[in-house]
Amino acid sequence: MTTKAGRILILMLSVILIFSGCSPSPNTDAGGKLNVVATTTMLADLSGIIGGEHVSVSGLMGPGIDPHLYQASAGDVQLLQKAAVVVYNGLHLEGKMGEIFGSLSGQGGTVVCIEEGLDTSKLLASEDDPAIFDPHIWFDVSLWKSAAATVAKGFAEADPNNKEDYEANLEQYIKELDELDAYIHQRAAEVPEAQRVLVTAHDAFNYFGNAYGFEVRGLQGISTDAEAGTADVSSLADFIVERQIKAIFIESSVPRKAIQALQAAVKAKNFDVTIGGELYSDSLGDEAAGTATYILTFKANIDTIVEALQ
Ligand SMILES: [Zn+2]
User: Fold this and answer.
1) Which class in CATH covers the domain with range 25-184?
2) Residue 118, H or E segment
3) Cα gap 86→81, rounded to integer Å
4) Could you read off the pLDDT of 117-162 as tens digits, one per residue?
5) What is the CA radius of gyration of the chain?
6) What is the mean pLDDT of residues 31-47?
7) Per-residue pLDDT at 23 exceeds 70
8) Among 25, 43, 63, 217, which residue carries the largest CB count within 10 Å?
9) Extended strands (E) in 222-283
């Protein structure tokens, strides 16, 4: 090939590239997908639903992992640094990862913090520390709808070519969340009002209680970072006896021994409380249990609660 012919070929190729329209977004991988890294299982699920075919999602925490205690590995930090979009909860949920998120902004990727899209007037204060908000916002479906909108906005910023698809996916998902919300209200109503008391391993269910009319008591605080003391166990046991509560619940991401100790303390006070089953608190379930998505996990939770308390 002569040099001249070579130049013409290059020129033709450039013209083809220019006229073929959308040059690939700098944020996409070789397959043209937006590379998204989400912290929790809830956020990985949400990112996949809003992003659809345009994203490839990696979740840092697997099912059953406790986000309050999760420490990012060196591999996680690399994944986060290379991501086009990072999605995290905030409100100190990822308590050991705060500094990493701070260092990511300014590195070129889009950082989506769910906390920033929430209406703070709808947030509950942490019981341990009234100066901070309770991070377990996914247990109020109306707050999870805000989270979905925040993710859609972040994806549209990172990948404007597919903005309309992200918005359409959001609209469709909001409908599914409205159906879920109606289902939870309808099931909750099956439990007599006096029995609507939820006792679990840690304070993850305050938004749930607030939205769906349950009184909530957690053995540990908002974070699982500190263990419950014997005084906490004893006073919660008194409460269970006094209110004649039929069942208490273990949580998938918290060791079950604390709730078993509570059950024993109740028995020592001559009252029997059953363990009503396992609730998913800070992590979704998995494929094998039929609870791999947020909607399936939440349905499993309300079904477990209603069956044990009614
Ligand atoms: Zn928690």
Assistant:
1) alpha beta
2) none
3) 9
4) 999 999 999 877 888 999 999 999 999 999 999 999 999 999 999 9
5) 23
6) 96
7) no
8) 43
9) 247-251, 274-279
Helix and strand counts by DSSP (H, E) for the chain: 10, 8
Ligand 1 centroid, distance to 202 Cα (angstroms): 7
Tell me 109's DSSP state: S
User: How many whole angstroms from 170 Cα to the centroid of ligand 1?
Assistant: 26
Which among 7, 24, 27, 68 is positioned nearest to 220, based on CA atoms? 68
How close is the Cα of 282 to the center of ligand 1, in Å? 5
Domain assignments of the chain as residue spans, ordered by start: 25-184, 191-309
Residue 243 CA, ligand 1 centroid: distance in Å: 25
Q: Which among 245, 242, 248, 277 has a CA at the least distance from the CA of 263? A: 248
- Per CATH, 25-184 and 191-309 having the same topology is answered yes
In sequence order, what are the residues at sequence separation of 6 or more whose Cβ sits closer than 8 angstroms to the Cβ of residue 90? 101, 113, 114, 115, 116, 135
37 beta partners: 58, 86
Amino acid at 118: L
